[in-house]
Amino acid sequence: MLLGEIMFRLHIDIPLVGSEAEASEVSKKIIDFLEKEKMLTLGVEQVNYRLGHDEDRQKSNYLLKNENGHVSNKKCHIYWL
């Protein structure tokens, strides 16, 4: 990226029905569809993602939980380079 260049971000909102465990499993499968070679061909070196909940006003990530079951507010990351 060049100095002063604007960076755009693609935000995709996929409604998932079912329990938290089911939504988590489906989310992981969707992320697995991202192919490293195709993403790098498009110039995408990194993907940040999280599983949220409509009633949760914070930006919680239900894919990241600690040993006490508390969710994180950090995104998950995939770095291809």
Structure description:
By secondary structure, the protein is of the alpha+beta class. The chain has one domain. Helices cover 23% and strands 19% of the residues. The chain contains two helices and four strands; from the N terminus they run ααββββ. The longest helix has 13 residues, at 20-32. It is globular. The mean pLDDT is 92.
In short:
This protein is an alpha+beta fold and 81 residues long.
Distance between the termini: 15 Å
Secondary structure class reads: alpha+beta
Shape: globular
Oligomeric status:
single chain
Number of domains: 1
The tally of strands reads 4
List its salient traits:
81 residues, alpha+beta, two-stranded antiparallel sheet, two-stranded antiparallel ribbon, 2 helices, 23% helix
Task: List the topology elements.
Elements: H1 20-32, H2 36-41, E1 46-49, E2 61-65, E3 71-72, E4 76-79
Antiparallel strand pairs: 1-4, 2-3
